[in-house]
Amino acid sequence: MTWPEVQGVVAAGERSALIAVGAIEQHGPHLPLATDTLIATETARRVGERMPGLLVGPTLPVGVSSHHLAFPGTLSISEQSFQDQVKACVASLAAHGVDRVFALSGHGGNFGPLGRLARQVDGMIGTAAFIPFDDLEAFLGVVHAVSAVDGIPPAASGVHAGEWETSVMLAIHPELVRMEKAAAGYVGDFDEATAERLFRDGTRSLAANGVLGDPGAATAERGERHLTAWVDALVDHFTRSR
What we know:
Elements: H1 3-11, E1 16-21, H2 35-50, E2 55-56, H3 79-95, E3 100-105, H4 111-120, E4 124-125, E5 128-132, H5 136-149, H6 154-157, H7 163-172, H8 192-201, H9 220-240
């Protein structure tokens, strides 16, 4: 869009916008570093199709990924830098008349920082309400439920580069998926203690190949179902806040 087009949308009374945030980090030997950013971008596009008048902004590509830094190619910024970037973008939109900014993440490590930012600013940045989807447990529940329909347990569906994420990439960017290199990584219970270990000691402490799950059963068809379920949840969440 050009700036007059954005101005026209806001002047017409459509004053909601969406910011997606991703990451550049390892996704095992079979998925590209940009996986989270690519998934966030496609998810935001689909949410925009379902919510007429919503201004869909560009994806912020680098997130909070320090727990993946043991793997070459990973980029990470501090939580403060990440929050400052999001806050500045929302403030920019508010200055142009947008009064509600939604946020979604393609990277699990960004959910916490988004939620903490929303609480720090008491839900307002400038004159705009800031409304992120920050419930990582709910998100994983959505994708794991889709996997379960086909008999794939949560441990294989995974939390990082496992079945669900590989399926989504097969659906949206199959040319970037190297299924011949796909291999299971950590497939144990991902409980609170495991999550604490992940963020304290890094992903390599759980899986030498960087995979938390088993991508072997991934299919493009299931990837479409994962995306549909996730977009449904986001549209419901954002619509109730619009």
